[in-house]
Amino acid sequence: MILTFIRTLILFVLVVMALRLMGKRQIGQLQPYELVVIIMISELAAIPMENTGFPLLAGIIPILTLLLVEISISYLSLKSEKLRGFVCGRPSVLIENGKIVEHELTRLRYNINDLLEQLRSKNIPNIADVEFAILETSGDISVIPKSQKRPLNPADLNLPTKYEGIPMTLIIDGYVLQDNLSKINLDENWLKSELSKFGINDLKKVFFASLDTEGKLFYQLKAKAV
């Protein structure tokens, strides 16, 4: 029992590290070869966990080999357009200049109902409003609406806008993010001083706190235990 626990823990850590080294992507954004590598790694990790008579090293070496292959392909794909096209494929135009490209749908075995479903998920119920629709290598569809159907923005009205940026998170569940404070040239003493203005003297009681680019501090206290 203990041996199984230790083997499982080792393989779990190894698989997590392997996935981290492969990069931060969601499942829907994986290239086909990346998905194959993930499936193979999971299968290889399951064998030593289920069968304690199977050498642990015999499961670790193939996992590391697949990881090396994946990283190598990813690196070489950055340098070679031909290899990237071969391994990852190329985007396909499904709607061009407002017209459905029928032969491309046929080649990809992509039916019109799937196309309409994807357009609806992009808040475009009318296919007549689409100028271009491109099926990306990840399987997602990028949609470019016709110019008359695009949302109005301040630039269209020549309206000036100010910089907004993103708020900087300072506290999460009572833990002060010192690195974020340093990025905005502030420290924990400043944070304590600001929160004390609201009657908060213990940072551990703060569930979340952030500072926006205008200098406004937002905070929320932890819920009291029932």
From TrEMBL:
Species whose genome carries this gene: Desulfotomaculum nigrificans (strain DSM 14880 / VKM B-2319 / CO-1-SRB)
Broad class of where this protein is predominantly found: membrane
Superkingdom per UniProt: Bacteria
Family matches, as PANTHER family: UPF0702 TRANSMEMBRANE PROTEIN YCAP
Protein name: YetF C-terminal domain-containing protein
Organism classification: Bacteria, Bacillati, Bacillota, Clostridia, Eubacteriales
Topological type in the membrane: Multi-pass membrane protein
Membrane-crossing residue ranges in chain numbering: 6-23, 30-48, 54-76
Keywords: Cell membrane, Membrane, Transmembrane, Transmembrane helix
Entries under Pfam families matching the protein: DUF421 (PF04239)
Compartments where found: Cell membrane
The keyword tRNA-binding is annotated on this UniProt entry: no
A single Gene Ontology CC term: plasma membrane
Similarity-based family: Belongs to the UPF0702 family.
Residues of the YetF C-terminal domain: 79-211
